[in-house]
Amino acid sequence: MASDGSIRDRVGDIPTPEFASIPLTEAPPLAEARVALVTTAGLRAAGDVRLWQPTDGSFTVLPGGARDVQLSHFSPNFDRTGFAADINVVYPVDRLEEMAAAGEIGSVANQHISFMGAQFDATFSTILLDSGPAAAQVLLDDDVDVVLLTPI
Questions:
Q1: Is residue 1 part of a domain?
Q2: 104 in any annotated domain
């Protein structure tokens, strides 16, 4: 198993994109906002036996009420114990529903998004130009105002 240092040595020089402008939108107050989850835990709906593969920049749409999800992350370095103990560690949909019931957020989205983290350089352009905008469109079509990112 590779150490953190050796992994940093391999990926530390990957350039990050620079943007000429940063688009900004103003969300409504949280008590009125529709909130979705975006995770990089590599989740799939139960029964979907495909494993994420290195350089797979695709995403999975998870139904808002789904709890029957499975972890399909390819990395052997990914610690699965938190997910095994409580799905909300990587996919806090129960917490969102509690917040909606308490009036702290307006509503929970009908759909959430899962990518597989631990991507390689070759995948970034796919996510930036293809799957990222496609995932954003899924959320826009669901009238999502705010996204809670659970990076893994």
A1: no
A2: yes
Residue 13 lies in a domain: no
Angle (CA) 76-82-84 rounded to 5° is 85
Tell me the pLDDT of the chain (152 aa) as tens digits. Answer: 556 777 778 777 777 777 788 777 888 999 999 999 999 888 888 877 777 777 778 899 998 877 888 777 767 777 777 777 888 988 999 999 999 999 999 999 999 999 887 776 656 777 778 888 999 999 999 999 999 999 87
The answer to the question of residue 146 being in a domain is: yes
Long-range contacts of 12-15 (CB under 8 A, 24+ apart): 14/121, 14/124
Count of domains forming the chain: 1
C-alpha 129/C-alpha 47 separation (Å) is: 29
Q: Residues 116, 73: contact at Cβ < 8 Å?
A: yes
Domain of 145 in residue numbering reads as: 29-150
